[in-house]
């Protein structure tokens, strides 16, 4: 009799086959759609009484969501679902939204008033945390290409891209402190980031533990 295939394994493999056929550019296309929707709402007056704050908040949320989405890809692989080909695209989309979030604050909110921005940095430490997270993402975006992997070497490139952990934690803390009222959503993002990083640490530690006889 032919061996029976576990239905769950069969379903995961079917998904893997589907994702193998899906081009990477589809992630970029899907990733830009929320940005276009925000632009549409801004043009049509659909962002409420304070559209600038709404733009800032939504862009930042999207950046954090894509950052966390990028972290989810590795644990999914532990369970057989392979989305690794999309991880670079997800990270670059996250960088785009965080860069747009910062640009919205600098241009739309602060109006390029550098002295006021400096005062905000002094008074609101969570802005510094957010800036640090964005700074951590810059070398990641610059080196998210095959040429950089070859130039740096795979091991050094992987070490550099651990800055993702700094970026996602900084972004989550920035969001939690920014909203001040402690609503559930920012805390969920922070909890998800901590849980995903803890899972990676546990997996890395387990790899080096001696195997019992």
From TrEMBL:
Essential cofactor(s): FMN; heme b
Family indicated by similarity: Belongs to the MsrQ family.
Principal location: membrane
Membrane-spanning parts: 25-43, 63-80, 92-112, 124-142, 163-181, 187-202
Protein name (Swiss-Prot/TrEMBL): Protein-methionine-sulfoxide reductase heme-binding subunit MsrQ
Gene name for this UniProt entry: msrQ
Functional note: Part of the MsrPQ system that repairs oxidized periplasmic proteins containing methionine sulfoxide residues (Met-O), using respiratory chain electrons. Thus protects these proteins from oxidative-stress damage caused by reactive species of oxygen and chlorine generated by the host defense mechanisms. MsrPQ is essential for the maintenance of envelope integrity under bleach stress, rescuing a wide series of structurally unrelated periplasmic proteins from methionine oxidation.
Subcellular location: Cell membrane; Membrane
Subunit architecture: Heterodimer of a catalytic subunit (MsrP) and a heme-binding subunit (MsrQ).
HAMAP family the record matches: MsrQ
Any GO MF annotation of the entry: oxidoreductase activity, acting on diphenols and related substances as donors
Cofactor note as given: Binds 1 FMN per subunit.
One GO location term (cellular component): plasma membrane
Organism phylogeny: Bacteria, Pseudomonadati, Pseudomonadota, Alphaproteobacteria, Rhodobacterales
């Amino acid at each position: 009799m032919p061996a029976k295939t576990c239905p769950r394994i069969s379903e995961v493999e079917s998904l893997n086959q589907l994702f193998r056929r899906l081009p990477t550019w589809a992630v970029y296309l899907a990733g830009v759609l929320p940005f276009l929707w925000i632009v549409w709402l801004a043009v049509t007056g659909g962002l409420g009484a304070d559209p600038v704050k709404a733009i800032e908040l939504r862009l930042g949320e999207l950046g954090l969501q894509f950052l966390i989405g990028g972290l989810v890809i590795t644990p999914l692989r532990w369970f057989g679902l392979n989305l690794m080909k999309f991880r670079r695209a997800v990270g670059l989309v996250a960088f785009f939204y965080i860069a747009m979030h910062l640009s919205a604050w600098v241009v739309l909110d602060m109006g390029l008033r550098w002295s006021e921005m400096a005062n905000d940095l002094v008074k609101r430490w969570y802005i510094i945390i957010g800036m640090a997270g964005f700074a951590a993402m810059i070398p990641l975006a610059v080196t998210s290409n095959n040429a950089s992997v070859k130039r740096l070497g795979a091991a050094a490139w992987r070490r550099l891209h651990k800055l993702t952990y700094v970026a996602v934690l900084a972004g989550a803390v920035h969001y939690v402190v920014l909203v001040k009222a402690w609503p559930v959503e920012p805390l969920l993002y922070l909890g998800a980031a901590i849980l995903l990083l803890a899972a990676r640490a546990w997996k890395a530690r387990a790899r080096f533990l001696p195997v019992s006889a």
